[in-house]
Amino acid sequence: MNKFSILIVDDEENMLKMLKTFFEEKEFKCYTAKNGREALEVIEANKVDLVITDMKMPEMDGLELLRVIKEKYNNISAVIMTGFAEEYTTTEALNLGADGYITKPFRNKELLLILKRIQQLNQYE
Fold first, then answer.
1. Is the pTM here over 0.70, yes or no?
2. What dotted CATH number matches 5-123?
3. How far is 39 from 123, CA to CA, in rounded Å?
4. Cα–Cα distance, 103 to 90 (Å, whole number)
5. C-alpha radius of gyration, the chain, whole number
6. How far is 36 from 125, CA to CA, in rounded Å?
7. CB atoms closer than 10 angstroms to residue 31
8. In terms of CB atoms within 10 Å, which end of the chain has fewer, N or C?
């Protein structure tokens, strides 16, 4: 089965569980990681189509993770989640190649709209 796969990266356990449950209910393959370093291990071991990452995390933050993904795995889409929607950080994330960003708290419906847009873009590449 060729399912669209999502990696959720956040240091908040509740956010990981909530998003994993939500995406699995929508029949997406879903992985989780607690920081950027764990995320890179998951990417190395699995096919990942989309990374949804928190901006502020210990060890390796979302921007650092985004830099590595766009340098080494440019076929993986990335969306930044942040509770701190400062114009500088969102602009930097988009300049680094993020496919979108979403500000916490958000509705799952908003995330689903971003996901559908990314899936449509990936169909034509």
1. yes
2. 3.40.50.2300
3. 24
4. 10
5. 13
6. 26
7. 21
8. N
